[in-house]
Amino acid sequence: MFGSAKSGNSQPRWLFPFVIVVIFLLSVLPLGRLAATGISSAFRSGASDLITDPALWQSVYYTVTTSFFGMLAAIVLGGGFALLLTLFDLRCKTLIGFLFMLPTMIPPQVTALAWIGMTGPSSALLKAIGLAPPLGSPQPLYSAGGIALLYGVQHAPLVYLSLRAGLLALPRDAVEAARLSGASSWRVLKDIILPLSLPGFTAGAAIAFVSGVGNFGIPAILGIPASIYTLPTLIYSKFAAFGPNTFADVSLLSGLIAILAVIGLAIEERVLRGRDYRVIGLSGQVAVFSLGPWRILAELVLWLTLLIILVMPMLALIASSLAPAYGVPLSLKTVTFHAYEEIIYRQAITRIAFTNSIGLSLATAFGLLLVSVLIGYFIVRSRSRIAPVLSAIAEIPYALPGVVTAVAFILVFAAPLPVLGFSIYGTIWIILIAYFSHFLAVSLKPVVSAFRQIDPSLEEAARLSGAGFGRRMWDIVVPLVGPAAGASVILVFLIACNELTVSALLWSAGTQTLGVVIYNLDDSGSFNLASALSVLVVVMVIVMMLILELMAKRLPKGVIPWRS
Amino acid sequence: MAQLTLNSLYKTYEGGARAAVSDVSISVRDGGFLALLGPSGCGKTTVLRMIAGFEHPSDGTIQLGDRTLAGAGKMVPPEHRNMAMVFQSYALWPHMSVADNVGYPLKVRGVSGEARRRKVMEALSTVRLEPYADRRPADLSGGQRQRVALARCLVTEPAVVLLDEPLANLDRHLRQEMEETFREFHARSGATMIYVTHDQAEAMALATDVAVMSEGRLLQLATPEEIYARPEGALVGGLIGQGSILQVPLLTGEQRLFDWHALRHLLTDRRPGHSSDMLVRPQDVEIVEGGMSATVASVLFEGERYALKLALADGQLLRAFSRQPVKVGDVLGIVIRSGWRL
After folding, report:
1. What is the pLDDT of residue A282?
2. Which residues cross the membrane (chain A) (predicted)?
């Protein structure tokens, strides 16, 4: 099955072409096609209609402002948690950290539903405790401010992680040296720690901004009812009102999103490159300051924040799912599991969505594992200069917002396939291949870091023992990267199963995913069914995060996104 | 089994300023034990990896008997070379038991069941590790891991056994024990062995032939005795054994070995100009009344004797031994029994 290499190189001859073909299909082809269509339609006569359309500039304005204010909220929340949890002697740090990371793994449309359930006149939770505003008063979250606030909650963990990674890399001896030089705790914080952690701050802020630009679930649920369109939801509405110019228009819009994302990522890349001084000194053990009598206050603030951004929205979501209908107050008399019965036993659509999402995610997770093991092996073992380039290209689709990936694959597959003569547009296969493209980087990362930890001599010893490529992979390499491969499968499954942005543009009747169904249920007014389905999704997310948490000790550093 | 021949091997890396290995020709007789000796970065490990097949020579050939392993457009991959290697990191597979590690080459060759178990136990008994067959490598000490790696080499009766600085990670006590194990292993298996090291004492103690390398080139290939007595060039002279290299006026003749009569004349000749290198071993420096005077520059007590550094009249330093205690600053009389022109 495996051809053997003739050279001193450990790779079989088919590996390089395989890697090239896969990366071409999953990254170069769709993004190249998108760029080509975007550029050609920019010079087309009809392009001026789009460019002069005030709706476009309105949505650019909303995209930038909501992402920017969302970024500010994320900086305040994520920065505050990172500084307090990393630098001070608080209790239950691991638990607080885990809870704080939850919002980033909960699908954005679920977050949006939960917050709607928490606020506004129809909130089952507020009604249950008699605090609901009078009927007819507006839902405050259906606004640019609401979108920005939820971006902040959803993306605060990204700032938290980036800043925390920087803080953990601060060597304790640098802090101790400053203390011995006579600096007080506060001076050390101000003069040493904050300046050194600035790159982590900036990088986290840039990622938060890019994530806001690409977010679909939150503006779709909060923005569309108030006629506030961001670029991703504008693309969605263009597809809903399909016309002759749709492909040209959406390729231009996706290009705009991609440009905004690239600007943000370039800033991140730039500031992180300047972070080289962190290697000086013995790193790994961070200095912990004592807060003294302030500790209890800090802990109170953190738990209160968690209550507001996590516990209450989730309670509201549960309350909405148990209420008999939207707007009916929840009490012990009215509580009903009707919504759960409905989605589990009666609604064919939720069953289809579960089957689709779980099937797609399993296929993506295991299919990508095979691809990642081979590509990862090539990237780590190859000495050629093309390896880092390929690795960077493989990561682009995940770095760009999911809408961009989805539009790119629509452009590639809208026409019938050459030779075969049929089109996969509208089938589940286009979602699958878009998932492969979009989540390749998620799958690749744990595998590559595990490969880098393997001493090459372990494989060389197997070669001298007479084992060919397939044999070595199976007997030596795969068992050694086993835990990371497991993490890769669970992570891809977790993210793919909850994803809405890619499938929102690619689904059609019969190929709905969980994300799409939650959105559609809410859109058609079945708020309690959407909430019940969301509760199940959140439970699934928490269970999988806990499994990964239990595996954490056996995994290379940096594999689990919410641990630093 | 057959003779291993390296024929003017070159290895250049893309972007490398100079060749990592340049024009190295070595012939190791069947059953020989060759030590590749040199400072780190001299290309010795690259030579070893080319023999194993992990690196492709840029030029030159490698032959085992009449079989060409590398060169002339041919390249036998490592898995088909019938060689075995002890790596500096031992390269034991952490997910397999000791017995599985040792038996892996047999498993790959399709040997199974009782035959494999018997051979594995035989190999483990040679390195005295039978009781550890079911342990994991992580549960073993450094020396035990080393012996597992050796047993893995033993199990298939390879034509050539390669050892890449196998003692570098062990403490001094274990090194001596392992040197003994290697010697035994070589005597018993009769395999051709290639041993890479930067430690000249290790090389001299183990090998039947020593190849000294520096900056990618082979400087000298000879038996340990020969290389100690007749080193070629200042680099080899400085690397092998203790000794001091003295600058003497330029010598052009055929003569290499000089006695005290000639040396005394050379050392007092103060003409300026080009000079030759003269290697003087400390055991050839005798302290006698009425010899040439030299000042003690430093004294180190080594237990059985004192190791001295003596400053000659012109300031050149000379190593010597003394059985009597001396003090820094003492002036001694010395006679140099022999010197070797490098």
Report:
1. 43
2. 68-88, 95-116, 192-210, 216-235, 247-267, 279-297, 304-326, 358-380, 392-416, 422-444, 480-507, 527-548
What ranges do the domains of chain B cover?
A: 4-231, 242-341
Residue B232 has pLDDT above 50, yes or no: yes
Cross-chain Cβ contact A460/B52 below 8 Å: yes
Pick A167 or B284 by higher pLDDT. B284
Report yes or no: A471 at the B interface, CB cutoff 8 Å.
yes
User: Which residues of chain A make contact with B78, given a CB cutoff of 8 A?
Assistant: 8, 460, 463-464
Query: Using CA atoms, how far apart are residues A17 and B319, in angstroms rounded to an integer?
Result: 62
- Using H for helix, E for strand and C for coil, what is the string for A41-64? HHCCCCHHHHHCCHHHHHHHHHHH
Q: Is the pLDDT of residue A21 over 90?
A: yes
What CATH number corresponds to the domain at position A61? 1.10.3720.10
Task: Select from B78, B83, B93 the Cβ nearest to the Cβ of A458.
Answer: B93
- B120 band by pLDDT with thresholds 50, 70 and 90: very high
- Determine whether the interchain pair A465/B94 forms a contact, defined as Cβ–Cβ distance below 8 Å: no
CATH of domain B242-341: 2.40.50.140
- Between CA B312 and CA B315 the distance in angstroms is 5
Contacts of B109 in chain A (CB under 8 A): 466
Interface contact B104-A475, CB threshold 8 A:
yes
Structure tokens at B187: 């005597």
In a domain, A46, yes or no: no
Cβ–Cβ < 8 Å for A86, A286? yes
Residue scoring higher pLDDT (A378 or A42): A378
B56 → closest Cβ in A8, A463, A479 = A8
Residue B326 has pLDDT above 70, yes or no: yes
Is A338 an 8 Å CB contact of chain B?
no
**Predicted complex ipTM exceeds 0.85:** no
Does domain B4-231 fall under CATH 3.40.50.300? My reply is yes
A4, closest residue in chain B (CA to CA):
B77
Three-class SS of residue A59? helix
Domain count, chain A: 1
Q: Which helix (DSSP H) or strand (DSSP E) does residue B312 occupy?
A: none
User: What is the domain extent for residue A175?
Assistant: 54-323
